[in-house]
Amino acid sequence: MAEGYVVFGATGHVGRIVVTRLLEAGKKVRAVARSADKLKPLAGAGARILPGSVDDPAFLRLAFDGMKAAFVLLPPYLGAGIRAWQDRTAAALGDALEAAKVPYAVTLSSIGADRPSGNGPIAGLHALEARLDRIPNHSPLHLRPGYFFENNLGAIGLIKGMGSNGAALKPDLKMAHIATKDIGEAAARRLLALDWKGRLVQELQGERDLSMAEVTAVLGKAIGKPELKYVQFPYADAQKGLVQMGLPEEMAALYMDMSKGFNDGHLKPTQPRSAATTTPTSIERWAAEVFAPAFQQS
Q1: Which helix (H) or strand (E) holds 269?
Q2: Residues with Cβ < 8 Å from 55, sequence gap 6 or more?
Q3: Using one digit for the tens of pLDDT, what is the confidence trace for 174-233?
Q4: Alpha-carbon distances, residue 160 vs 6, 44, 296 (angstroms)
């Protein structure tokens, strides 16, 4: 009988939490990530580490073999043909899961993954969900979190350089914002319980809906800059800024497609806010515990 868990993205913000909680519960865990060096601490904690690439079909088959459940995702990819790579990798993950006959999988998806297009890089997650949904005798749980608090860490340079925060999102647009650690906790709980059959979607909408203006005010207070303001950039300017920060043109354009989808109301939660979709960490707590120290150390 299949036993044990395989966790992809095991060294990331979400995956590391998943691995830790499974190990604490006494489970057998295979921890998968690209970097062997970054995986070493998880080996010390009791996981079997598997360094490798998520777009390698032979490696995927090895990783899934004999597993009861998996945590899967599409890791960041900044090479040429980003969307094509996402679709190929989603297909490879599904093929390997199907060949290994893994009964359960939890996917790290996103709010907006219900749409096949007009959502930037989230379209790749739509493809991943769709591929897993077609696996016979398989029960996929698609976790769809909101906008990561951790995305704000990328604004530290802008805040220090310009004295303001800014992006393409509307300043007063209320959205689901969430701490990545809460996503990891939710994924681990469901993997330990394995309490569903067939396809299931669970949105994770954070502690409360927030606008970027509200987020920026909290961040400013946490770093001793209560006057900090948020500025909405035109899409072209925001895209240019992302490229100047080192993102490929294609990814920058995909982010603008996603921002426009949120701004226009096309990308939004499909489930009501409830105890099941609400998570505990507030933006105030995250700003004090994570953002302020990162800001001071940068």
Answers
A1: none
A2: 85, 88, 89, 92
A3: 999 999 999 999 999 999 999 999 999 999 999 999 999 999 999 999 999 999 999 999
A4: 40, 38, 10
Beta bridge partner(s), residue 6: 30, 70
CA end-to-end distance (rounded Å), the chain: 49
Tokens of 122: 């989230």
Q: Which CATH class for the 5-151+178-204 domain? A: alpha beta
pLDDT tens figures, 25-52: 999 999 999 999 999 999 999 999 999 9
Which residue ranges make up each domain of the chain?
5-151+178-204, 167-171+209-273+281-297
* Each residue's pLDDT tens digit, 228-276: 999 999 999 999 999 998 999 999 999 999 999 999 999 999 999 999 9
CATH code for residues 167-171+209-273+281-297: 3.90.25.10
Cβ-Cβ contacts under 8 Å for 84 (sequence gap 6 or more): none
Please tell me the predicted confidence (pLDDT) of residue 145.
Answer: 98
Cβ distance 44 to 15 under 8 Å? Answer: no
Residue 282: DSSP 8-state = -
